[in-house]
Amino acid sequence: MIIEEASIEAVESRLHQHKQFFKSGVTRPIQYRKDLLEKFSAVIKNHEAEIIDALKKDLNKSEMETYATEIGILLEEIRFVLKNIDEWAEPKKVKTAKTHIGSKSYTVPEPYGVTLIIAPWNYPIQLALAPVIGAIAAGNTAIIKPSELTPSTSALLAEMINTHFDPRQLFVIEGGVETTQHLLKQPFDYIFFTGSVPVGKVVMEAAAKQLIPVTLELGGKSPCIVDETADIPLAAKRIAFGKVTNAGQTCIAPDYLFIHKSKIDEFITEFKKTVIEFYGTEPLKSEKFGRIVNERHFNRLTSYLEDGEILLGGNVDAGSLKVEPTLMKPRDFTVPVMRDEIFGPVFPVLEYEELDEVIDFVTERPKPLALYLFTSNPITEEKINGSISYGGGCVNDTLMHIVTPYLPFGGVGESGIGNYHGESSFSTFSHYKSILKQTTKFDLSFRYPSGRFGMQIIKKLLK
What are the Aldehyde dehydrogenase domain coordinates in residue numbering (predicted)? Predict the structure, then answer.
């Protein structure tokens, strides 16, 4: 399936329609936003079968994995937003400084306007529509650009959005690199991008030329650390879950493992048991195990298998674009598998003796999007979380921090700028306008150049 590029004229026309629609004020009433979110939820539910089918075609995702990671997470997010939007949208009073006696101060969340949401291919439904929930809740319009690497899902998103919603409120523009370039030249009011670090830099550069605010949800090499006090069978199961879900094509998947040298053999044994439990003795033949998105990424992943000693797995199937869950010992820290974000089911395993070795290794590299620590020692937990900067993560689990709407999700440094989910999504797509309402019943004259004893009073108040 080939996706045609959108012309610059089509992009400009659509943006103009959105600008006019937002200017009309239609999107601002809270009830309008609620009604739109209810409809958004209904459209997702009514297309459940089509979503499952599209993701099967594009990524060989199982029905359970699709519902858990693409559909259910969106429905829960909408439910949470609908429950809380009235409170979030209320003006918030703040304290009055003693220099402003007689006045009242408050902040008012207001929508930015027309937002651009550029989505990736790895979770092409969830990561396209989750930001839209926040954009709607905050009162914005949204133009959505899906990834051309998952063409079945891209076409489905266009059908779901463009035939069920006012095209001036929500609209999907399909296309490839050229279409994205057209979009990035436009004067959007906000850009929300999910994807790789290199493309994130391109997006930020384009936004900077017009001073457009951005959220960048990127990636990087997210470490997983298992110390000598960890429950190894449970750790292996939860780490395998985080690593092989969506065939490892997850921005917050554990990228490499640091494990205490006393536990490495037990971990390999338990990891193998888990893979068999999940996908049988031949994962490449399992319908539950996803495939790599395309041949280019498949070849990239298979090349990593040459970067060290295979400890487990290592088999591939070029016909189905599948790579077996693989544990490997890299030759050294300079090989590509230890430099690149892996984005697949290949898992480098490194052993350590002292925790400081791990901390030094991680902190000498770009700040990761996620970090996972498996330990029963609270001192280790405190030391890792106090020493390493990362976007978010889990202690004794993987991935699950992204599922709760009560936690903001986002990166730091090279792994991203800004965050979303739950109230953070509303905040991301809102500008908080500060307003001070001054009394007219009296006037403090000391602030004026002609004020008597002005300098003495100001010095007492401002110190």
Answer: 5-435
Model pLDDT, residue 385: 96
Give residue 257's pLDDT: 98
Catalytic residues: 217, 251
Is the Cβ–Cβ distance between 256 and 404 less than 8 Å?
Answer: no
Strands 326-330 and 308-312: antiparallel
In angstroms, the CA 102 to CA 147 distance is 54
Residue 376 CA to chain centroid, in angstroms? 29
Q: How confident is the model at residue 267 (pLDDT cuts 50, 70, 90)?
A: very high
Q: What is the pLDDT of residues 143-179, one digit of tens each?
A: 999 999 999 999 999 999 999 999 999 999 999 999 9
**Secondary-structure breakdown of the chain: helix, strand, coil percentages, each rounded to the nearest 5:** 45, 20, 35
CA atoms within 13 A on the CB side of 192: 32
The domains found in the chain, sorted by start residue, are 8-218+413-435 (3.40.605.10), 223-410 (3.40.309.10)
In the prediction, which pLDDT does 447 show?
Answer: 83
Say what the pTM is.
0.95
Written as six digits, the tokens of 250 are: 């997850």
The widest CA-to-CA distance across the chain, in whole angstroms, is 88
Query: How far from 197 is each of 82, 200, 201, 218, CA to CA, in Å?
Result: 33, 5, 6, 5
pLDDT above 80: residue 451: no
